[in-house]
Amino acid sequence: xxxxxxxxxxxxxxxxxxxxxxxxxxxxxxxxxxxxxxxxxxxxxxxxxxxxxxxxxxxxxxxxxxxxxxxxxxxxxxxxxxxxxxxxxxxxxxxxxxxxxxxxxxxxxxxxxxxxxxxxxxxxxxxxxxxxxxxxxxxxxx
Length: 142
Prior knowledge:
- 30% of the residues lie in helices and 35% in strands.
- A hairpin with a 5-residue loop joins strand 2 and strand 3 (85-89).
- It is elongated, with a radius of gyration of 21 Å.
- The model has no long low-confidence stretch (mean pLDDT 88).
- By secondary structure, it is α/β, with parallel strands linked by helices.
- The protein has 2 domains: 1-30; 41-141, CATH 2.40.50.140.
- The chain starts with a helix and ends with a strand.
């Protein structure tokens, strides 16, 4: 076998093994427990939405993949399926809100529209709404 073919096969084999190792590491990566994690930012839902609306690039650089503790008034509580729940927080904007996605269902009866609540989650971006994933309830009061 010619030497350049051996080198090419070695490079392909090394790349395949590397890709498999990276995939295994990412697959087994643990999620952040947002209920106990220290928040990077503490902010109101209105202020968070306004920052994204005013300058999305700056807000994205500042908040995406960070743990945020957001306080606001519940607009809607929506079960997405049997194991997930989304809570939308009012922001004062008719077009936009802060949507908090919970990884495991909590009792929807526990939270009602109009209640003031503090939630903690990881910011994942802005698509007309500010999106928080892996959320946890910190406090709720009427």
